[in-house]
Every structure is written in structure tokens, then in C-alpha cells.
Amino acid sequence: MATTTEQRNRATAGKKAAATRKRNAARRSQSARQAAATRAEAERTYVEALATQAERAVLIPVGAALVARDSVIESVVETAKGFRTRSGVERELKRFERRGNTARNRAVRQVKRTRTRVERELRQRRTQATRLVKRNRRQVEQQVKRTRRDFERNATNLQNGAEKLVDRVQDQVTTQA
User: Fold this and answer.
1) 176/109 Cα distance (integer angstroms)
2) What are the Cα distances from residue 126, in Å, to 114, 121, 129, 132?
3) What is the longest distance spanned by two Cα atoms in the chain?
4) pLDDT tens for residues 58-92?
5) How far, in Å, CA of 164 to CA of 177, rounded?
6) Taking a C-beta distance cutoff of 8 angstroms, is the pair 12, 18 a contact?
7) How wide is the angle at C-alpha 104 spanned by C-alphas 102 and 108, nearest 5°?
8) Helix (H) / strand (E) containing 113
9) Are 82 and 89 in contact (CB under 8 A)?
10) 64 CB contacts (<8 Å, ≥6 apart)?
11) What is the pTM of this model?
12) Cα–Cα nearest to 118, from 106, 110, 129
């Protein structure tokens, strides 16, 4: 009887293990399906993004050209309105003359400002350069003066030392002779 119970327990355990394996396989299969769907969605989204970018690359220059064309047409139409009569032409010419005169005056003022600024900067730099040269010259002259003084002092000390040495040698020679 113990063997029958054991066999029953083994059979039950085997069935449980098989059911667990079956559930795990189903979960893996479902996960694989979800991953594949996610990859497909990502690829589709990537392709759509590329298509959108390509479409923008074509539409932007076309739109810019159309806006520029509209601006030119509007400008020509506005300008042409003033030239329909003789008085209109004279009025427009006077307007153009005033605008040209204003632009010339503005350019002249700007040139004067620029010239003044450049001249000021040049004067400042020249002054700085002059100061720097004077300062460096003073420093060099002081250094030369110090070096000359030190050299003369050392030469005098050397000469005195040599004279003393000669005197000592002469004294030794006379005492030994």
C-alpha cells in the first residue's frame, strides 16, 4: 500500500511539474510575442520619423521660396501704385531722394564715429607704448648703472687684492733671499 501512495504522489508531482512547465512556456511565448510587437512598433515609428524629416527637408525650402515670392510681388504692387500719375511719380522720387539723403547722412555719421574711435584708440595705444618704452629705458639704465658700479667695485677690490698679494710675495722673496 505504501508503494501505491508513493506512486500516486509521484504521478501528482509529475503532473504539477508538467503544468508548471506548460505555464512557463506559455509565459515565455507571450513575452516573445510582446517583444516582437514592441520591436515592430519601434521600427514603424523610426520609419515614420525618417519620413517626416525627409518631408520637412523638402517642404521648408518650398515654403520659404513661396513666402519670398509673395513678398516680392507685394513690394512691386505697392511700389507700382505710386507711379500711376505724374504727381505720384514726383512724390515717389522725392521720397526716394529723402531716403537716400537720410541713408547717406547716417553713413557719414557712422564713418565719423568710427574714425574718431580709431583715432582715440591709436592715441591711447601710442601713449601706452611711449610710457612702456620710457619705463623700460629707465629700468635698463638703472640696471646698467648698478652693474657698472658693481663691476668697478669688484675690479677695485680685485686690483687691491692683487697688489696685496704682490706685496706679500715680494716680502717673502726678500726675507728668503
Assistant:
1) 99
2) 18, 8, 5, 10
3) 145
4) 778 888 888 888 888 888 777 777 777 888 888 88
5) 20
6) no
7) 115
8) helix 86-176
9) yes
10) none
11) 0.41
12) 110
Q: What per-residue confidence (pLDDT) applies to 15?
A: 79
d(CA 59, CA 53): 10
The amino acid sitting at 54 is A
- Distances from the Cα of 176 to the Cα of 92, 159, 165, 166, 168, angstroms: 123, 26, 17, 15, 12
For 19, the grid coordinates are 503544468
CA 48 to each of CA 57, 60, 61, 120: distance values in angstroms, whole numbers, following the listed order:
14, 18, 21, 61
Q: Which three cell numbers stand for residue 104?
A: 547717406
Sign of CA dihedral 63, 69, 72, 75: negative
Residue 173, judged by CB atoms within 10 A of its CB (0-12, 13-18, 19+), counts as: exposed
- Output the nine-digit C-alpha cell for 145: 648703472
pLDDT digits (tens, 9 = 90+) for 26-60: 888 788 788 777 887 777 788 887 888 887 887 78
